[in-house]
Design a protein that fits this description.
- There is one protein chain.
- Helices cover 26% and strands 20% of the residues.
- The protein has 17 helices and 23 strands.
- Helix 13 links the parallel strand 15 and strand 16.
């Protein structure tokens, strides 16, 4: 799972480049889709070179954001579909009891670990027990808090018992990757993971490269086509030059490089299916005058031109939105998007509100902090347009985190990448949630109760509306304002076939990914 911090770090480079069957027809809000003509007959062999998110640990249960690499050698019981819902993966199918207190997974037969052992329900149980007992912090740990027991009634059936309904569970365990308990370091920190994926955990040079050879006994018949995949882990930023030179086959590109890539004959642009979200956050823990007044906060939100921000930050993938779910996500509601009263800037209304509240903007200096990203100057100028003085301070990662924790600022410009479940966008706004600093340290019992009600509701349609009710509390009190969403852009050389990105940064998922990729022979 990519943290908010990691996602926001990637904003200029990747983040802002970065139930099912909803049947969306959103001409104005649709993400760009690239369809590239490809040959029909896969070719076997070759080494594909890719630059994506890094690899922060060899222990897949302890990762802090390295899903852009790990999932080629480890797989979960579930996988995230293109609409953000959970689909079976190592589980051939699953069943959820009506009360949401029992999950039954029917495992695929004949799945082999990379050491040749056949995966059984006992192996799956051991992985869940390891995460529940040994992993502290993070999304997996939070999901395990709701589990009350695990059962393996036969070799191909695994059952999870819950102490209370927890709707994000199926989505979150897409990142609880199943490893052989024989993996080196199992009882402490895994150093040589033995997974079930289409490629092996090969030679890893931290912050440099991971070489992942193909697994000859992979459970999906005739896959993979490639001999190996090599990940460039140097975090070098925009990959457009390496793509054009042929040093990479797939790589992240900056929004400013998209037009140049599209003008080339050897590389084309593709996007993640899921989106990142950018938001404008006030200091909600220790608000200073005049921002302790919700109406003043509302006035500032009226001054923000979302379309300009989205276009500047994300180009053609920028989507003006007021929801935490994107138009591609099953939780999205078009009626809510159409009702966004802040979709367009309204300086007249903003100034009227300030007058009614007796606020002379020129008497106040607002301190805005964030990462050092070009698009943040756009926000700053929009706040200044109301007459406020602005002290804008950009930071590197560590410095910003330290400053955020002091709550001695007025506004922070933040964002988060595509998540395995929409709940993960909401939980950072709870009173005791993870990374609450990025949403200004909200402490609102009404919101906490509304979100808990949504999370513990098994029925999807009911839960979908309850999430919207919770979001409305945040929006009405002007704690946090969603500005736009965008999809991370990647350059893909034209000799790459059979590959497309999924919902998250994972390069391998139930419906596709690198297992299906192949290279044209030169």
């Amino acid at each position: 799972m990519m943290t908010i911090l990691n996602a926001t770090r990637m904003t200029r480079r990747m983040l802002l480049a970065t139930a099912s069957g909803l049947g969306l027809t959103l001409a104005a809000a649709a993400l760009p889709v690239t369809v590239w003509a490809q040959d029909n007959e896969p070719v076997r062999g070759g080494v594909l070179k890719i630059a994506s998110l890094g690899l922060d640990t060899a222990d897949p249960h302890r990762h802090t954001g390295s899903i852009g690499v790990q999932q080629i050698y480890v797989e979960g019981l579930t996988s995230i579909a293109n609409d953000g819902t959970a689909k079976p993966f190592l589980a051939e199918r699953f069943e959820v009891s009506e009360d949401g207190l029992s999950y039954t997974f029917h495992l695929r037969e004949g799945v082999k670990f990379h050491n040749g052992d056949t995966m059984t329900s006992a192996d799956v149980l051991a992985n869940f027990e390891r995460v529940k007992s040994n992993v502290q912090g993070g999304w997996l740990a939070s999901a395990m808090k709701f589990t009350s027991g695990f059962e393996a009634p036969d070799e191909h059936t695994f059952v999870v018992r819950m102490s209370a309904p927890y709707a994000p569970f199926l989505n979150l365990i897409s990142e609880l990757w199943i490893l052989s308990p024989k993996s080196t370091g199992w009882n402490d920190t895994i150093t040589q993971p033995i997974g079930t994926g289409p490629f092996l955990f090969g030679k890893w040079a931290p912050n440099v490269q991971l070489s992942a050879p193909a697994f000859a006994d992979y459970w999906q018949e005739d896959l993979p086509y490639l001999d190996a995949v090599e990940f460039d882990l140097r975090d070098a930023g925009d990959s457009s030059l390496a793509l054009r030179a042929g040093d990479l086959h797939i790589g992240s590109i900056d929004v400013d490089s998209i037009a140049d890539i599209k003008a080339t004959t050897d590389v084309h642009v593709e996007y993640l299916k899921g989106t990142s979200v950018d938001y404008f956050t006030f200091n909600n823990r220790k608000a200073r005058a005049p921002l302790d007044n919700p109406r003043v906060r509302e006035a500032i939100v009226y001054a923000l031109d979302k379309a300009t921000i989205a276009s500047f930050a994300a180009g053609e993938s920028g989507i003006v939105n007021n929801q935490w779910a994107s138009p591609t996500n099953a939780y999205f509601n078009e009626d809510v998007r159409k009702a966004d009263k802040h979709a367009k800037a309204d300086l007249a209304t903003a100034r009227r509100i300030l007058d009614e509240e007796g606020i002379n903007p020129s008497d106040h200096t607002l301190e805005i902090i964030s990462w050092d990203l070009p698009q943040n100057q756009v926000y700053v100028e929009m706040v200044r347009a109301l007459g406020f003085k602005v002290d804008y301070i950009p930071y590197e990662d560590l410095g910003l985190q330290q400053r955020l924790d002091r709550y001695d600022w007025d506004i922070v410009l933040a964002g988060s990448g595509p998540r395995a479940d929409v709940y993960l966008q909401y939980v950072v706004m709870t009173s005791d949630g993870p990374n609450v600093r990025f949403t200004g340290g909200i402490q609102d019992p009404e919101f906490d109760a509304a979100l808990k009600k949504a999370v513990t509701t098994p029925d999807f349609e009911t839960r979908k509306n309850l999430y919207l009710d919770a979001a409305k509390i945040i929006a009405d009190k002007h704690y946090v304002t969603v500005i736009n969403q965008s999809s991370a852009a990647f350059g893909v050389r034209n000799e790459v076939h059979g590959f497309e990105f999924g919902y998250t940064y994972s390069p391998h998922y139930a419906a596709g990914g690198l297992a299906h990729a192949w290279l044209s022979k030169k």
